[in-house]
Amino acid sequence: MKPDRDAPVGVFDSGVGGLTVAREIMRNLPSEKIVYFGDTARVPYGNKSRENIIRYSRQIIHFLLEQQVKAIVIACNTASAFALDEVRDEFGIPILGVIEPGARVAAQETKNKKVGVIGTEGTIGSGIHAAFLRSLDPEITVIGKACPLFVPLVEEGWLHDPVTMEVVARYLQEFKDRDADTLILGCTHYPLIRSTIREFMGEGVRLVNPAYETALELKEMLKRQDLLSTGSGQEEFPYRFYVSDLADKFKAFANSILPYDVEMTRKIDIEKY
Amino acid sequence: MKPDRDAPVGVFDSGVGGLTVAREIMRNLPSEKIVYFGDTARVPYGNKSRENIIRYSRQIIHFLLEQQVKAIVIACNTASAFALDEVRDEFGIPILGVIEPGARVAAQETKNKKVGVIGTEGTIGSGIHAAFLRSLDPEITVIGKACPLFVPLVEEGWLHDPVTMEVVARYLQEFKDRDADTLILGCTHYPLIRSTIREFMGEGVRLVNPAYETALELKEMLKRQDLLSTGSGQEEFPYRFYVSDLADKFKAFANSILPYDVEMTRKIDIEKY
Count of CB contacts below 8 A, A vs B? Predict the structure, then answer.
């Protein structure tokens, strides 16, 4: 059965990071409704095992299907790296991740074929960007680096800060030394320190924001499958937010980064799914 | 039924941090056997809700009871803050936390009755140190501050580092400004950056390490209840380590901080308990 084109898009992440993806969907597909799930009880995913991430992702997809979504975006690089291939064809609706859209653009845009990738330990350890980039162009050299302090710095709100600048310099010097001309921001929190990263890396390096590229790819996919919302049937709350813990804290963070006032976040028991 | 005095002591934490408590028990009670559980699948606890922390703690206590421990140390400040009062009398064996031993020493040692406490958002938000310190001495002023970047800095291994020094200065300046003469390191990771904290705070401030004070309190309690190990019946593996995820990573960290070579860590499914 074909999904309802005016049904919402499901978006999930380990916590608040995926809101940068939701934000790009809101900006670029303003007619689409969104059901967002942030797994705040089990955040972060970046230092957890592949098998646990797959289990968590299946539970969340079951929850989103109950919300009758027409498509799902895994708005978390770690979950995209570990779970997308496992779940992609399992549920009868389209499921997108954030790895491939970013990697595709990076492969197109690099001139010297040296592409850097930054992300969590899980994402970088999986080697998935490298594998996908080389499948697109075997001549590309991929330089990956885990940056575990970026997420806590973003969550502390130190976005434009000397400490963050120093940590950026420490982590990213290697990309300068090795002359990468393209850098994939391979964790959904990182676009929030994009300007600090830009300041350190300079204007000559292309920074790829997979959140933006994923929103564009979602648009293409919905168009192709004739699933773009007609914009009719708009509800009072086109954007709904669910979490597995601490709904108020989530809401405060969401309100600080979304171009939209989050009215309501509801806590659910994700272990039941 | 009285527990077996040669049974092991159970110690648990959200992850690796509680190893600083296990280390003090190894140093100060060398005849005691230890079963350690690190909840690496659900780490960190510091930004999770009270109700989830209580649920996690009960699951872990069930697991430790299955290992036939004679007493349990909750080697995590957040779990001690949220769960100790709930579970203390529920299981028929003594259960200690890390909050009270540290707070007791701080109350004894402060001269100007201004005590600082640093910890996770959960621990500081709970206000438990303040409540307990004031129950010991109503004249004590308690200054609490959450330091969410300390744990990721420790886990990154940046123990003696200019970035860590700058973050320490940022978080702890308030204690200097307000003239605290005693500072409780209210998170089990923090003793690992004790020398950086010492450098910033100076020699005049008493730093209280609850890991050490808890080991001494455990010793007193076991003595009082006639449960100190006779030292006989030593097994080949007096220290056993269990985790809920990524056993190898845990083992590497454990080997870097314990005065002992960790032979084996085993992964279990804690959601089953």
Answer: 56
Whether B147 is catalytic: no
Give the residue from chain A lying closest to B166, CA to CA.
Answer: A163
In DSSP notation, A167-215 reads: HHHHHHHHHHHTT-SEEEE-STTGGGGHHHHHHHH-TTSEEE-HHHHHH
Which stretches of B97-232 are DSSP H helices? 99-109, 121-126, 128-136, 150-155, 162-177, 194-201, 210-224
DSSP state, residue B192: G
* Catalytic one of B19, B26, B75, B76: B76
In chain A, DSSP assigns E strands to: 9-13, 34-38, 71-74, 95-96, 114-119, 141-146, 182-185, 206-208, 239-243, 265-267
Q: Exposed, middle or buried: residue A181 (CB in 10 Å: 0-12, 13-18, 19+)?
A: middle
Å from A217 to nearest chain B CA? 32
| pTM confidence score | 0.91
Which residue, chain included where needed, has tokens 């060398």?
B30
Residues of B in contact with A163 (CB under 8 A): 163, 166-167, 170
Question: To which H or E segment does residue A122 belong?
Answer: helix A121-126
- Global ipTM: 0.88
Specify whether A147 is catalytic: no
Separation CA A188–CA A15 (nearest Å): 10
pLDDT tens per residue across span B43-66: 999 889 999 999 999 999 999 999
